[in-house]
Amino acid sequence: MRKHTLETLLKEGLITGDQQSFLSRIYDKSVFSLYYELRTMLYFGVLLFTAGIGILVYRNIDTIGHQAIIAGLAGLAAIAFRYAAKRRPPYSHRETESPGSLYEYVLLGACLLFATIVGYIQYQYGIFGTRWELSALIPAVVFLYIAYAFDHRGVLALGIAGLASWLGLTVSPAELMKQGIFSSEAVIFNGLVFGIVICGVAFVLDRFGIKKHFTFTALTLGSNVLFVACLAGLFTLGMSLLFFPLLMLCCAGGIIFARREQSFLFLLLSCVYGYIGVTYFLSDVLVEAFGIFFYFIVSCGIIIYFIFNYKTFLAKR
What we know:
It is flat, with a radius of gyration of 25 Å. The chain has 3 domains: about 1-30, no CATH class; about 40-160, no CATH class; about 170-315, no CATH class. Helix 3 (about 35-65) packs antiparallel against helix 4 (about 65-85) and helix 10 runs parallel beside helix 12. It contains 15 helices and no strands. The protein is an all-alpha fold. The protein starts with a helix and ends with a helix. Mean pLDDT is about 80; it is low at about 170-175. The longest helix is centred in the N-terminal third of the chain and has 30 residues, at about 35-65.
């Protein structure tokens, strides 16, 4: 925007003198926002804080004592949870206004400390016995509750990631070492179930108007796992007639959602995963009929054209 445009808007009465002065300072870059910079610093601050606690525990575990470490971590987590609980807005199915960035990152830090405590107790005392997956499931369930109670998308992502870890830990480590993570039938089908359930629950809650602003986060995590599981099954299990149609169905659903929400991310994910699946499924035919080199030249050209014109595709008619 040029300065003479602001002057024209002022003359036409579309903006006030104060607005014109403020916008001019933004245009001259004498006023600029530090919002994202401050949020990034807070995010890395939480990560450094939790990492520092882990290093402190590791280096002094013999001198501090296990009970003292657990008590200290629990005390920090309790203080952080109490701070967040006193400032959280009343629950609503709709998005609530955050009390501030500090509140969000204190809550995130408290959840990371809680996960650390559960993992530490299991490692040191084995309270769950050989059921290591419970040390991932319990924090995941707690995080999902906190995410909805405190309206926090970051904690929601932690909870969903915890559920994914729980499903992965239900598979025998010996089987993973023998077959490889993407060759394990159990891991692949667990991934399918996880992705379908997460996406299905996200759509149901969105349909009933419960935390609709969570839908994008849940679908992003769930759909990526679902896409990867479909490709892994297509590549390693030899079930093309099952996994290829399922992958195409997921891609079609992603494209429909992308058009509905005007989301370039879901359009890109659907096209990339779909392109990989189609290329693999038709690889033998493509090599014999066209030559793989010719195919990649043509397909890459189509993709480049599509990326430059994606707005036209997303435009609602």
